[in-house]
Amino acid sequence: MPKTATPYQPHLLDPASAQPQPVSPANGRSFKLAELYQLLDCQTVDVVRVTEELILIIDDEGKFRNPAYLNLLATYVWHQHQPAARGVDCIVGRAILCHDKQFR
Questions:
Q1: How far is CA 61 from the centre of its chain?
Q2: Average pLDDT for 75-96
Q3: Cβ neighbourhood burial of 82 (10 Å; 0-12, 13-18, 19+)
Q4: Which of 27, 58, 63, 70 has its CA 20 to 30 A from that of 3?
């Protein structure tokens, strides 16, 4: 069985779904920009630090979409780990929760 870069299973957090969906990088190690654009249905991504090792990769222009869909699950995860963000900002659109080594 091939070794992966990290034992963490990345998940797609979609505002249209209450359940995170497991996703994997095409090469088995780290996501490339082209596949992130496809998974997140966007043209620009941003990285939001959740913990020392976990990140959220988000649609950087999600707030400018019409309609813009608040991602309650991604916002909750972010706020749980980064309390300073509570009441200040939220995440809109799709997001991928993954280990920071899974995005190079």
A1: 14
A2: 95
A3: middle
A4: 58
Which residues fall within 8 angstroms of residue 70, CB to CB, at 6 or more apart?
A: 15, 90, 91, 92
Contact 94/35 with Cβ under 8 angstroms? no
- Could you report the per-residue pLDDT of 51-60, keeping only the tens digit for each? 999 999 999 9
